[in-house]
Design brief:
Blueprint lengths: L2 H23 L2 H19 L5 H75 L2 H46 L9
Length: about 180
C-alpha cells in the first residue's frame, strides 16, 4: 500500500469513529449514561465520599473537555456535510447544463421537422396530374403482375395434378390386364 492509501484509510477510520460518537451522543443510551454520571457526581458529596469543591472541579473539567470534543466532532460532521452538499451542487449544475443542451437539441429537431413538413407540402403541391396518372399505371401494372403470378401458380398446380393423373392412367394401362379372349 502506498502512503496516500494508508493515510486515506486512517482518515476513513477516524470519520467512522466520529460518526459513531456523534450517533451515540445523540441517542437515548447517551442521555441515560450522562444522567447517571451527573446524579452520581452530586451524590458523592452527600455521602461524604468527595468534597463538594473537588467534585465540582472534576465535573466542570470533564464537562469542559467533553464540550470541546463535541464541538470538534460537530464541526467535522458539518464540514463533511458541506463537502457532500458541494458535490451535489456540482452534480445539479452538470444536470442543468445537460438539460439546457437537450432543450437546444429539441428546439433544433423541432425546426428540422417543421422544415421537412414544409418540403413535403411543397412536393405535394408541385406534383402534376400526369405524374399521378403514371403512378396509377405503375400500381395497376404491379397489381396485374401480382395477379398473373398467382394465376400462373394455380395453373402450375393444375398441370401438376394432370401429370399425376396421366402417370396413374399410364400405369393402369401398362399393368397386365386380363386377356379379353379368355386365353
Amino acid at each position: 500500500m502506498s502512503r496516500d492509501e494508508i493515510q486515506e484509510e486512517k482518515i476513513q477510520f477516524l470519520q467512522k469513529v466520529t460518526d459513531g460518537v456523534m450517533w451515540w451522543i445523540g441517542s437515548i443510551p447517551s442521555l441515560i449514561v450522562h444522567s447517571i454520571v451527573f446524579i452520581t457526581a452530586f451524590l458523592l458529596p452527600l455521602f461524604n465520599l468527595v468534597a463538594v469543591d473537588k467534585m465540582l472541579l472534576v465535573l466542570t473539567t470533564v464537562l469542559s473537555l467533553e464540550a470541546i470534543y463535541l464541538a470538534i466532532f460537530i464541526q467535522m460532521s458539518v464540514n463533511r456535510s458541506h463537502e457532500h452538499i458541494e458535490d451535489i451542487r456540482e452534480d445539479i449544475e452538470e444536470i442543468q447544463d445537460d438539460i439546457e443542451e437537450i432543450s437546444e437539441d429539441i428546439g433544433e429537431i423541432s425546426e428540422d421537422i417543421d422544415d421537412i413538413q414544409e418540403d413535403i407540402e411543397d412536393i405535394a403541391e408541385d406534383e402534376d396530374d400526369e405524374d399521378h396518372n403514371e403512378r396509377a399505371r405503375n400500381v395497376m401494372l404491379k397489381s396485374n403482375v401480382s395477379s398473373n403470378k398467382s394465376d400462373i401458380k394455380a395453373l402450375k398446380e393444375v398441370i401438376l395434378t394432370l401429370q399425376h393423373q396421366l402417370e396413374h392412367l399410364k400405369k393402369e394401362s401398362e399393368s397386365p390386364t386380363q386377356n379379353p379372349s379368355g386365353l
